[in-house]
Amino acid sequence: MIGRAVLVLLLALLAGCGTTPAPPTTAAPAPAPSPVPRARAGSGAPVVVLDPGHNGGNARAADEIAREVPDGRGGTKPCNTTGTATSGRGTSAGYAEHAFAFDVAQRVTRVLTERGVVVRSTRSDDAGVGPCVDQRAATANDVRAALTVSVHADSAPAADDRGFHVAVADPALAPSQRGPSLDLARALVAGLEGEGFTPSTYRGESGLDPRPDLAGLNLARVPAALVECANMRNPGEAAVLTDPAGRQRYADGIAAGILQTLGR
Ligand code: ZN
């Protein structure tokens, strides 16, 4: 196992060395994302780390989640946040982002497991506190994951803002954050579009959102992307988010992007 892990890491470094830095937000998504070579290395199943954003206990642990942790660029950020929730009235109001993220990640896990992928999660339930964002990245790094995907939903400035976006660390701090993370992000965009979702009207470009301020992405040393599935404050999107069938569509889109990236 150790020998294969070293080989996998080496392949990942080689994959990143020859690639150019991630282009700015004007980059258009590639129609056919190329697989990450490391995921094919060895005969064992690839390991994917899913990272459902926030946690159900964060709101009652304000001091703990406000603790500053490294942001990966020489500064610090709070350990974690409570996340957002759907707004408005009716049955789709008051659904928490942490619950959405955890449910979608579980659905992604089921799809990937059926396809022979080994899945680890950064948290095992939706009632705890944290973990901090730096620890979430460390989980993926420590198991030398083939890739890691964080699942979130956003609270956009306006209620009519809509659509998903996929963030990657930019400027890149490691080879995995150049070609491999961008390939993963593009595959996630394609996967979500394949489920009928449309790119954000308010962030990024064509569903891609390269940004410097997400500690989990900055600290990852494996291909990493963060999906903001929708604007929870948009009533139409809230109706989809709160519907189990809608969450399954998000999960299927994310799983499709992961499987594309793994070449499976
Ligand atoms: Zn979030």
Topology of this structure?
Blueprint lengths: L1 H16 L29 E6 L9 H5 L1 E3 L5 E3 L18 H18 L3 E4 L11 H10 L4 E8 L10 E5 L9 H16 L13 E4 L3 H5 L4 E8 L3 H7 L2 H19 L2
Parallel strand pairs: 1-4, 1-5, 5-8, 6-7
Antiparallel strand pairs: 2-3, 6-8
The protein binds zinc ion.
Structure description:
The chain is of the alpha/beta class and 264 residues long. The protein has one domain: Aminopeptidase, CATH 3.40.630. Helices cover 36% and strands 16% of the residues. The chain has a six-stranded mixed beta sheet, with helices on both faces. A hairpin with a 5-residue loop joins strand 2 (68-70) and strand 3. Helix 3 (97-114) crosses helix 8 (244-262) and helix 5 runs antiparallel to helix 8. The longest helix has 19 residues, at 244-262. The radius of gyration is 17 Å and the shape is globular. Residues 1-43 have low confidence and may be disordered. The chain binds zinc ion. Zinc ion (ZN) binds next to loops.
Rg value = 17 Å
Looking at CATH, the homologous superfamily is Zn-dependent exopeptidases
How many discrete domains? Answer: 1
Helices and strands, in order, run as: HEHEEHEHEEHEHEHH
Estimated share of beta-strand residues: 15-25%
Q: How many beta-strand elements?
A: 8
Helical residues, percent: 25-40%
Shape descriptor reads globular
Uncertain ranges: 1-43
> Which ligands does the model contain, each kind named once?
zinc ion
Biggest sheet details: 6 strands, mixed
CATH architecture: 3-Layer(aba) Sandwich
CATH class: Alpha Beta
- Continuous helix count: 8
